[in-house]
């Protein structure tokens, strides 16, 4: 799928988690709901770090473009080192390592530990990166015609405001993990969810997605998981734009209302 659909599905997924948590008797404070939805929207772009032309490659100028090239090379090397006889030969690393559950868990877990151990500046850094990505994804057309600096300033302001709100007692710094020293340990959860939602979205497209790697399926370790080929669509097609994106918006709205206790 394309960047806007990925981000929208990520936000909808976190709002759905918020509704489920409320139904289970553990409602999220509203700052966690809002912040988590934006982080998840941003994290849903991150698996495309292996793609030099993806939205994320433009998000931070030369830094993100260089990072995408490095991740592409690493992903391709991992693919070649672990492929089985049934896996095809590839010339690049797109839709390999960063499109797996292993990547999602490692990145999300790493961000949780960084947020918990690194203090306020680490939290601000994580929020800034994901706020910029959320702006790039959710406000794609506006972000494309705006200067990068303006997007970065908006991301930085959003991160600063959200961190200040979350730090206030009862607003969510210790949501879910309440032991001393576990503040912001939950921050990795929307990152894991965003990456997995991205993978599921790509699995619906023509190429499928090797989300189950390194579990072998048949003679393939990089098996492209997906529905029957007749049910798949091309990225950016009318199915994505006219059907799935409106569905994501409706589901996100329902999830948000449920999370806030209105339904």
From TrEMBL:
The chain crosses the membrane at residues 121-142, 149-166, 241-262. It comes from the Bacteria. The keyword GTP-binding does not apply. It holds the Pfam family YdjM. Keywords: Hydrolase, Membrane, Transmembrane, Transmembrane helix. Signal peptide: none annotated. InterPro entries: YdjM-like. GO terms for molecular function: hydrolase activity. This is Metal-dependent hydrolase. The lineage of its organism: Bacteria, Bacillati, Actinomycetota, Actinomycetes, Kitasatosporales.
């Amino acid at each position: 799928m394309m960047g806007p659909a990925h981000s929208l599905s990520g936000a909808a997924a976190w709002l759905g988690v918020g509704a489920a948590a409320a139904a289970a008797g553990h409602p999220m404070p509203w700052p966690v709901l809002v912040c988590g939805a934006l982080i998840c929207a941003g994290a849903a772009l991150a698996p495309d770090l292996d793609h030099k032309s993806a939205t994320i490659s433009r998000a931070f100028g030369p830094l993100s473009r260089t990072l995408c090239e490095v991740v592409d090379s690493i992903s391709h090397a991992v693919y070649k080192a672990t492929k089985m006889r049934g896996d095809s030969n590839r010339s690049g690393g797109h839709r390999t390592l960063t499109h797996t559950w292993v990547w999602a868990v490692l990145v999300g877990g790493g961000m949780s530990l960084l947020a918990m151990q690194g203090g306020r500046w680490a939290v601000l850094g994580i929020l800034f990166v994901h706020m910029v990505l959320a702006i790039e994804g959710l406000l794609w057309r506006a972000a494309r015609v705006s200067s990068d600096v303006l997007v970065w300033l908006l991301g930085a302001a959003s991160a600063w405001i959200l961190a200040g709100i979350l730090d206030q007692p009862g607003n969510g710094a210790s949501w879910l993990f309440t032991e001393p020293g576990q503040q912001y340990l939950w921050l990795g959860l929307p990152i894991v969810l965003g990456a997995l939602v991205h993978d599921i979205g790509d699995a619906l497209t023509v190429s499928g997605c090797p989300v189950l790697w390194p579990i072998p399926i048949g003679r393939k370790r990089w098996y492209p998981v997906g529905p029957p080929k007749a049910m798949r669509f091309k990225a950016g097609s009318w199915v994505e734009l006219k059907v799935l994106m409106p569905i994501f918006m409706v589901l996100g709205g329902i999830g948000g209302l449920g999370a806030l206790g209105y339904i």
